[in-house]
Specification:
Layout: H1 6-15, H2 23-35, H3 38-54, E1 56-57, E2 64-65, H4 71-74, E3 79-86, H5 89-96, E4 103-107, H6 125-133, E5 139-142, H7 148-161, E6 167-170, H8 186-194, E7 197-198, H9 199-205
Parallel strand pairs: 3-4, 3-5, 5-6
Antiparallel strand pairs: 1-2, 6-7
Helix pairs in contact: 1-2
Zinc finger (C4-type): 58-73
Keywords: DNA damage, DNA recombination, DNA repair, Metal-binding, Zinc, Zinc-finger
Pfam families: RecR_C (PF21175), RecR_HhH (PF21176), RecR_ZnF (PF02132), Toprim_4 (PF13662)
């Protein structure tokens, strides 16, 4: 792709590094920004810089937050005895959009995947286990995607807490095997949360 301006070329190259954005789409976005008032471009740039510099991760659940503790964990009306375990922040957003879950979350930051060099120590599994050992949690809900990596992660965590007096469940398989939570429709995802099953039962059926 030839550019008549090195400035446009640089902007397009940077924009095209975003997921799902090719060079042509990046060019359309850059040209759109170029047509906007200068202050609009400044607002966008400042919002991105501020987000990158000031964003925090919740000390409790590791969700993205503007403060040390996220709004969900700080909400006293939520049931803090039920923890939904998810892979990343996009899954928190997907489940919250269903309006069917009133507990809190624990964001692992990924899934166990030896092929990709991701082991248990690189995730927040130990902090989750520590929470459970405090004795204030009554139920853990596994809400990881139904992939081999997701199932491996579920089983690893289950083995760490199997001897503790806690209910361990997993979302119902209304989510197709191999699907990511963020792409599930809200009705299906909401039902899968409400119709969750004991984790031991899911082991027998897999």
């Amino acid at each position: 792709m030839e550019f008549s301006s090195k400035l446009i070329e640089k902007a397009v190259n940077e924009m095209s590094q975003l997921p799902g954005i090719g060079k042509r789409t990046a060019l359309r976005l850059v040209l759109h920004i170029l047509k906007q008032p200068k202050e609009q471009a400044s607002f966008l740039a400042q919002a991105l810089v501020t987000m990158r510099e000031e964003i925090k991760y919740c000390n409790s659940c590791h969700n993205i937050s503007d403060s040390a503790v996220c709004e969900i964990c700080a909400n006293t009306s939520r049931n803090h005895q039920i923890i939904c375990v998810v892979e990343d922040i996009r899954d928190v957003m997907a489940i919250e959009n269903t309006g069917q879950f009133r507990g809190i979350y624990h964001v692992l930051g990924g899934k166990i995947s030896p092929i990709d060099g991701v082991g248990p120590s690189q995730l927040t599994i130990n902090k989750l286990v520590e929470k459970v050992k405090l004795g204030q949690v009554k139920e853990i809900i596994f809400a990881l995607s139904s992939t081999m990596e997701g199932d491996t992660t579920n089983f690893y965590i289950y083995k760490q807490i199997a001897d503790l007096p806690i209910v361990v469940s997993t979302i119902a398989r209304g989510i197709a095997v191999g699907d990511e939570l963020e792409y599930a429709d809200e009705v299906t995802l909401g039902r899968s949360i409400l119709q969750r099953v004991p984790f031991e039962k899911s082991l027998k059926t897999n």
